[in-house]
Amino acid sequence: DIQMTQSPSSLSASVGDRVTITCQASQDIRNCLNWYQQQPGKAPKLLIYDASDLQTGVPSRFSGSGSGTHFSFTISSLQSEDIATYYCQQCHNYPLTFGGGTKVDIK
Amino acid sequence: EVYLVESGGGLVQPGGSLRLSCAASGFTFSDYWMSWVRQAPGKGLECVANINRDGSEKYYVDSVKGRFTISRDNAKNSLSLQVNSLRAEDTALYYCARGGYRRFDSWGQGALVTVSS
CA–CA separation, A3 vs A17, rounded Å? Predict the structure, then answer.
């Protein structure tokens, strides 16, 4: 199985800050990497697919990059409604696997 | 709008069984892969099973192989997960998710399965 390692596991930042999360795959997954947001008490929501494509309706302050084994996810200007846990997920091989999550809160 | 509504969760003893269901609406069900993703209390996400559009391909995470069975009824726009030989570590919120070929683009609100004596 492909292991996905996210870092950091949690972070605190101020409104307006730039926030970056990284995700490393245990093997080359090309660009088959998705990012999800899970707000407290809610189901996950797809934000970014295929490493860098923005899902319809998602604000442009969210972005993703990377290929191969190293990927990053950025919130360009953190908003209060972005408090959530963020997960990466590889889609290169079955079983589809998620990173451990990064909990983002407001400082 | 896409709607996915899970049902069938509950409290079950170790070794017991349940059948989870997901009613889908707002899209052409037979055009999409479907999946079950679970989340143990306070933990991360784990994809447990995927099924292709006509039900001919199924994938499972190793920890549930031989115990869980995913199925679908395209005529009824319904997805199911038969869960047998339940263990304490299967306690989780089970989400029905649209997708599973590459990404999960819509999610239900989940059905809680608690395995305890």
Answer: 29
List chain B residues with CB under 8 Å of A87: 44-45
Residue at token pair 């306070």: B42
Summarised one tens digit per residue, pLDDT across range A73-94 is 999 999 999 999 999 999 999 9
How many residues are recorded in chain A?
107
Contacts A32 to B, Cβ<8 Å: 102
Contact A44 B45 (CB under 8 A): yes
Return phi, psi of residue A25, to 5°: -95, 150
Q: Give B16-62 pLDDT, tens digit per residue.
A: 999 999 999 999 999 999 999 999 999 999 999 999 999 999 999 99
Could you give the angle at the alpha carbon of B41 between the alpha carbons of A73 and A42, nearest 5°?
Answer: 55
Residue A37's closest CA among B32, B45, B4, B3? B45
Per-window interface: A 54-73 vs B, CB < 8 A: 55
Residues 6+ apart with CB under 8 A from A59: none
**Residue A37, amino acid:** Q
Res. B100: pLDDT tops 90: no
